[in-house]
Amino acid sequence: MPILCGLFLNKGTERRDCFMADYTASDFRKGLRVELDNIPYVISEFNFVKPGKGAAIYTCRLKSLIDGNTYVRNFRSNDVLKKPDLEERTMRYSHVETDHYIFMDENYEQFTLTVDVLGNNRFFLFEDCEVRVLYHNGRPVDITLPTFVEKEVLDTEPGARGNTATNVLKPAKINGGFEIPVPLFVSQGDIIKIDTRTGEYADRVLKK
Amino acid sequence: MASHSPYHDKGRLQSLQPALIFRGRVLSAIRKWFGDAGFMEVETPVRLPTPALELHIDAEPAGSSFLRTSPELHMKRLLAAGYDKIFQMGPCFRKGERGNLHHPEYTMLEWYRTHADYMNILADTESLVAQVGQNTCPGRIPPPPWPRFTVEELYLKHAGWNPVEAYDAERFEHDLVTKIEPALPRDTPSFVMDYPTPAAALSRRKPGHDKVAERFELYINGVEIANAFSELTDAAEQRARFEQWAQERKAMGAAVYPLDEMFLAALELGMPPSGGIAVGVDRLVMVLMGATSLDAVMAFREGV
Fold first, then answer.
1. pTM of the predicted structure, to 2 decimals
2. Which of A69, A123, B163, B170 is a Cys-bridge partner for A176, taking CB atoms 3.0 to 4.6 Å apart?
3. Domain map (residue ranges) of chain A
């Protein structure tokens, strides 16, 4: 069974940004969650510029909390952004029923997430895996897994013994149905650690 | 004994030591240049009954007073009283300005010359910055003269329109940040000159050109370092500009400060034609050091 490597500090249901309000540009800062055209974003980069004797320009890189896409947008002092109605719930993965992924919260209440919310994260789930699910206006929009998960390599070309280079990669099929590039020394049956933020190989934790 | 405290970031201060030593050398080199050039160092109040009114500058209240956003108006009162070459280096405060290139409290250097205009100040600026660079980081600042570009030519070349003919503040500022500043040279300081009159601030119109004001900015490595004027000395026009900004500030919901009648009175009694400039000292130290954020050159920053 894969081993859970990263544990979350926040247990149980956490309610953030629980009352609606607006942010003006002077409230903007890195990490602030805002809503624009009904899409929740996090400000991933923030810069204050004020050219010459001119008005301030607040340059923000906005990262969509739904699809992760980012774009840069400038705001002026008087611009207002909505505070998104966001809620984060911690739950555990139970099982899958044909494209419907079933999760359970601490009260054993069941929640169903679909592939379009899970994306590639669905390949990294394992039984009892603790996840954080982000709800926007009551609708699940994103899921955060433990930063690292461990998976068994089901199939890959035989390992090149003695080749310790980590920059030469070959494809490997992992338990859960995903294929990721791994270094040449990884063999079938090895347990590897995967970074769920990038979906990339991070380390080999157990050699077969 | 504890090695770490959330209240006192000893490690950061220790790692800043080379930068702070460098900063101290820049301050000394600045004062040395002014001493050699025959300027008198002055000190004017930091706490003011009313701050200098500008369209996009907010003052920090201090009790029933305000912290100065610049020493400009008091220094001009000295000029009007007959002082002819004065400089001042000290703290100024601007509310809500916080970014890589802004800090609500920062160090400003201003100097003024009477019977002079912005071109005399430009020559001072080249001489000062070149000498300070030579004394603190030889080789980083090429010898003057440095390129001079007019606002008109820069906008025509890089933004495709002419703000001198048809000014649009929003577009002007947006293009300045996104198109003009990135196009300025990186291997040498440069000057951006002759601003459209709606962006004149406290500068006088260029004689014979009613659409351009005698204002320049010094850029180093794409960063705005200084702003200079042939100073506006016409009391009536100065009052009209203050009143216009007050109206515009009111319209955009910004604080409106009372006019500085003592300054206006000084202009009414007569101020000789003068040139003056304000230099962001923290930014100058930053670019001379090759850094890109004020964090690298300020010992204590708000929120750090």
1. 0.78
2. A123
3. 22-82, 86-144, 148-206
